Amino acid sequence: MYDGLLSIELPSDTELIAFADDVAIVCTAQVPHILEESFGKAFQEVVIWMTNNDLELLHKSEAIVFTNRNVRILNFRTL
Q: What are the entry keywords (predicted)?
């Protein structure tokens, strides 16, 4: 079912990882605002694909940032 999702076009620093019925958007960036931008574009594409396939995100969905720096709260916009 998710084969189509795994083939959508994403920013070059972003990939989707799937296991069973779970999907993770993995983004890498050197600076927070680029991370926000890349994640936002990828998330929007995932939501469009899910909507077109009559699927929706669960409310338990989260964003986790891994870093070795102090970072401010990132603004991951939801649709």
A: Nucleotidyltransferase, RNA-directed DNA polymerase, Transferase
Q: How many helices (H) and strands (E) does the chain have?
A: 2, 2
Among candidates 3, 48, 16, 18, which has minimal Cα distance to 27? 16
Q: Judge residue 55's burial from the number of C-beta atoms within 10 Å of its C-beta, 0-12 exposed, 13-18 middle, 19 or more buried.
A: middle
Q: pLDDT of 4-50, one tens digit each?
A: 889 999 999 999 998 888 889 999 988 888 888 999 999 999 999 99
Q: Please tell me the pTM assigned to this model.
A: 0.77
Using CA atoms, how far residue 54 sits from 20, 48, 57, in Å, is 18, 10, 11
Rounded-to-integer distance, Cα 3 and Cα 12, Å: 19
